[in-house]
Amino acid sequence: MKRILFRAAAAAMAAAVAVAAVSCRPAGGASAGEAPAADPQIAQTLAQVSIDSVKVYVDELVALHTRHTLSTQTDPQQGIGAAVDYLAARCGRWAQAAAPGRPKPLIERVSYSVGEQGGRYDRVTQVPELMVTLPGTEGEREILLMAHIDTRVRDVMDSTAFAPGADDDGSGLACLLEAVRLLSQVPLRQTVKCLFVSGEEQGLDGSRHLAARARAEGWPVQAVLNNDMIGNVRASGTELREDRKVRVFSESRSGEDSDSRQLARYIRETAARYVPDQEVVLNYRADRYGRGGDHSSFQREGFTAVRVCEYCEDYERTHQDVRTEDGTAYGDLPEYMDFPYLVRNIRINLAAVMSLALAPAAPAQVRIANARELDNHTVLTWDPVPGAASYQVPCRETDGAEWLPALPLGLSGQVPAGQTEFRCPLSKDNYYFAVRALSAEGHPGLPGVAR
Ligand SMILES: [Zn+2]
Predict the structure, then answer these.
(1) Which residues line ion ligand 1, judged by CB < 5 Å?
(2) 267-309: pLDDT as tens digits
(3) Which of 53, 214, 378, 436 is the most exposed place for a label (fewest CB within 10 A)?
(4) CA 3 – CA 434 distance, rounded (Å)
């Protein structure tokens, strides 16, 4: 008897979903329970990521000799000043050529003072960095892409030695440059900001300055993707190579379901959809042992931030003086990078950023309404999300790392737009549940996890 009722409930729910699916999906879109279909506009933009352009950016950045935070700001051929000029000039040309009807990109040079409190500085000075804003047509939220301009050699205070920084972090800068070039050609609902920060090697000072400004000015930041070293595939010492995996580090200070962890899962999902030949590995750590990155500056200010980083690291490259010693060549030069790998990582970034910038916000106040009842159902409620054309309820087992692509037992997790309650015959004790809002085109937003 119970079994029959259960089946009837499942069938009724599947029928309701079929209606929702018809009303909010484009022809050929995903059916109930499947992952959303790929958006041809996103796929088209990703296809335009150019290996030739990326190589040129890295070569031109390396040609600036050093981008050390304390290097010259007046020499047009080298140093941090020339690097910021170079990035601003490139982005300025793309801003001028932005697609008609798209809000114009804004280029802002910023600076901050260093050295008053000591640290890795030998003087008090103003340090430049750059912020490029690609305004969204709606722009209630901001998605931040970040990479660091500055480079170093073994001696972190040496501001004049050749410090090419091809991978660390020319690779991240190349990602941001391609983002500005390509996203200035497409309309997005939400705003994307590219932060070219300095002071990373001296102690994350440039990102700390911008994170404090974001907090003080109340930037509506939804996600921060820090790209630091995304173009190397060789592990020095072990000689392992991995050119089909990239790590996304997410901290867990607020538990398995921290917002950073949701963002990391989202990047993995969109990568699987749009860049299936590269795997995002979820690394449940803030960063590598004994090291950090600019995403932590934003985490400390309470923002949702992750780090994208190559799977293998080459310690004969990073932070080395360029030299040959005992037959081994050291130094972070472009010839040791893997550019097809870098291109795939740039595509992974753009897939996540575009999908987020086209999707509705995460639902707020997602609650298990029957949490205190002896009831084998799960009843979820949430606040309506502006711009949501439908909702989807994913779940995962309590030891599961990822949201399942569909609810178990063939149940549907689809909910039509007007509804903000969901009831299903799965026990709230056996799963984690979330709710995500979908745009009319089927772009899924970040999940709001049921508490
Ligand atoms: Zn770095």
Answers:
(1) 168-169, 228
(2) 999 999 999 999 999 999 989 988 889 999 999 999 999 999 9
(3) 53
(4) 26
Residue 26: pLDDT over 60: no
Mean of per-residue pLDDT scores for the chain: 92
Q: At residue 19, does pLDDT exceed 70?
A: no
Residue with tokens 């949490």: 371
Domain that holds residue 158: 41-358
Residue 165, class by beta-carbon neighbours within 10 Å (0-12 exposed, 13-18 middle, 19+ buried)?
buried
**Whole-prediction pTM:** 0.91
Residues 112 and 46 in one domain: yes
Q: Which residue type occupies 397?
A: E
Q: The domain spanning residue 46 has which CATH number? A: 3.40.630.10
Which one of 341, 358, 375 terminates a domain? 358
Q: How far is the CA of 77 from the centre of ligand 1 (A)?
A: 22
Cα(180) to centroid(ligand 1), Å? 20
So what's the pLDDT on residue 22?
30
In the predicted structure, residue 2 carries a pLDDT above the cut 70: no
Residue ending a domain, choose from 326, 358, 390:
358
One domain, residues 156 and 192? yes
Handedness of CA 290, 291, 295, 296 (dihedral sign): positive
**Token code pair at residue 48:** 């335009």
Amino acid 313 reads E
CA–centroid distance, 167 to ligand 1, in Å, is 8
